Amino acid sequence: MRQRTGWLSIRLLVLGIAVVIALPTAGWAHGVVGKRWFPSTLAVEDPFVSDELSTVVEHIRDPHALETEIEMELTKRLTPNLAIGIGGTRSIIRPRGGHGEEGEEHGHEEDTGTSHGWQNPEFMLRYQFIRNPMRELAATAAINVSPGGIGNRSVGRLSGTTVSPAIQIGKGFGDLPDWADWIKPVAVTTSLGFDLRTNRNDREEDAQHAFGWGVTVMYSVPYLQSFVKDVGLPWPFNRVFPIVEFNGETLISGPEKGSHTAFANPGLIWAGKYMQLGVEAKIPLNDTSGKSVGILGMVHFFLDDIAPDIFTWTPFHGVLGPQTLPR
Asked: Which parts of the sequence are annotated with region: Disordered (predicted)?
């Protein structure tokens, strides 16, 4: 009886924390420009600098293995427009048919046939150079550096360093004329960049440079109800963003130069005051991208709203505070 009471208390505590985190409030954090609030997206980098912690889980099946990747990313503003970040990816690769990889060193991996480990870490620098409230327009320049040879060999980490310059742009359509009211909640974002790799061995994937691209189209139910027409959707449905993301990569060097992958990722994002949740299907659009549909899931925390005095402190501009829409 005492044990049951203990488990009940733990469950109530977890439920209470979840309810507090998800409580609906008037504020919106993260990517704000004018009346527009852009949620963080799962597959395509968004065009904002912010104080946030994000975890994205990707699971997909290819002809040879079931692959799961858990990506974690922490970003921190140094000024209102400049941010740094660090990210890591944990890979779990389970060969289909239960056969392990040759050369695996650990007894556990030999028993289960599963390889798991970290990819190379990633360090980020981002600068937001456009923020136009009237046009709901924002743009950010970014450069990521992933030092080679740090991650685990068992999950195929690259031996060379990857340098990835990119640009991200976001545009809301709230500036359309009144006859287009129902289109005003629509917003698009895009990300264009390169993966430039230094090679240290003869593996093909270590030497191939690539061009990466991404486009998102989203419909903001919060924008619809707040600035166009209140259609009466109650919480939690008034916090939903139907979204489709498209992303891909084209190799621009190496033996497979010219080959490309492309995916469509339809799904939903739900956002509260302190966190957002997201889920998307990952649908391959050509043979190179595979034949199986994968799934993406995201849990994202707005650190600038959770503890603004701690997470929005900067060495040069004091405490920036959370990024919220005008009340």
From this structure: 91-117
